[in-house]
């Protein structure tokens, strides 16, 4: 499937193209077929109604625009990209800081670490030390539960 990066702005035609890519890659659900069948002209009108069902069929979550859960999902995706070597620790913290500032509790420490990169020449820490802490934070993000734990049944 064509990769849509967390930093990209995705429009309805991009969603239709991603649905086509998913079908070509072997994913096949009724909702995905309906999305892929949209013309570019129809996409702006139909994608909002078709996307939730298609994602549900694939077992994927659709987060409301601007929701904290959606922001956290993006932060986790960026953390996975950094751990995979697609972003440097510095690039990762910069993107997090630019996107969420110090406001998103899950990523507040990463914003602070981005600030630390900016003042390295004035302090006693090294790039390697900050990189190591960023990597530890990225690991924490990717290990953080993405959905609430299911309640366990206790014997009565």
Describe the protein:
The structure is a single chain. 60% of the residues lie in helices and 0% in strands. The protein has 156 residues and is mostly helical. It has two domains: 12-57, no CATH class; 68-143, no CATH class. Helix 1 packs across helix 2. The model is unreliable at 1-7 and 148-156 (pLDDT under 50).
What would you report as the Rg, rounded to the nearest angstrom? 19 Å
Distance between the termini: 48 Å
Strand content: under 5%
Overall residue-averaged pLDDT value: 85
Number of domains: 2
Helix- and strand-based class? mainly alpha
How many strands appear in the DSSP assignment?
A: 0
- What is the share of helical residues? 55-70%
Number of helices: 7
Shape: elongated
Task: Offer a few descriptive terms.
7 helices; elongated; disordered N terminus; single chain; mainly alpha; 156 residues
Short description:
This protein is mostly helical and 156 residues long. The protein contains 7 helices and no strands.
List strands and helices in order, with pairings:
Layout lengths: L11 H13 L5 H7 L3 H18 L10 H16 L5 H12 L7 H11 L8 H17 L13
Helix pairs in contact: 1-2, 1-3, 2-3, 4-5, 4-7, 5-6, 5-7, 6-7
């Amino acid at each position: 499937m064509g990769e849509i990066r967390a930093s990209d702005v995705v429009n309805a035609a991009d969603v239709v193209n991603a649905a086509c890519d998913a079908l070509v890659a072997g994913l096949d659900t009724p909702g995905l077929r309906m999305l892929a069948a949209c013309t570019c002209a129809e996409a702006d009108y139909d994608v909002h109604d078709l996307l939730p069902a298609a994602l549900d069929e694939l077992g994927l979550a659709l987060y409301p625009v601007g929701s904290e859960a959606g922001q956290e999902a993006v932060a986790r995706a960026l953390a996975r990209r950094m751990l995979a070597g697609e972003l440097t620790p510095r690039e990762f913290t910069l993107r997090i800081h630019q996107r969420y500032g110090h406001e998103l509790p899950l990523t507040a420490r990463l914003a602070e670490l981005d600030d630390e990169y900016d003042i390295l020449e004035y302090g006693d820490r090294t790039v390697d030390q900050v990189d190591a802490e960023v990597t530890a934070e990225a690991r924490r993000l990717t290990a953080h539960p993405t959905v609430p734990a299911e309640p366990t049944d206790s014997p009565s």
